[in-house]
Write a structure and sequence with these properties.
- The chain has no helices and eleven strands.
- The protein is mostly beta strands and 119 residues long.
- Strands 2, 4, 5, 6, 9, 10 and 11 form a seven-stranded mixed sheet that branches.
- A hairpin with a 6-residue loop joins strand 9 and strand 10.
- It is globular.
- The N and C termini lie far apart (41 Å).
């Protein structure tokens, strides 16, 4: 099947930057949606950003102007550039890929990568 491998999490100071990467274990032709979610301790998982196959992008209000999502269809990868980090961005970040056609039809999640922002 398909596995998503994430990297790029870690510790940053407030105002700093981190870049998250998520790549699929096999090539998938133009997934319908690729995105990033996060879950902070004691809170529900929330959508951070997503990008469709057609390039439409959406962000949660709290990260607009600070985070940028992008995708590389040739690599079946999605990225999240996080700038001007705040302590409230601390969470485990998960990538998600939705495939609606072909042999890999389904919803896939990464294993999660920890992001910690110190004040």
């Amino acid at each position: 099947q398909v596995q998503l491998v994430e990297s790029g999490g870690g510790l940053a100071q407030a105002g700093g930057s981190l870049r998250l990467s998520c790549a699929a274990s096999r090539y998938i032709s133009r997934p319908a949606v690729m995105g990033w979610y996060r879950q902070a301790p004691g809170k529900e998982r929330e959508l951070v950003a997503c990008i469709t196959g057609g390039g439409s992008i959406d962000y949660v209000d709290s990260v607009k102007g600070r985070f940028t999502i992008s995708r590389d269809n040739a690599k079946t990868a999605v990225y999240l550039q996080m700038n001007s980090l705040k302590p409230e961005d601390t969470a485990v970040y998960y990538c998600k890929v939705v495939v609606v056609s072909g042999p890999y039809n389904g919803v896939y999640w990464g294993q999660g990568t920890q992001v910690a922002v110190s004040s």
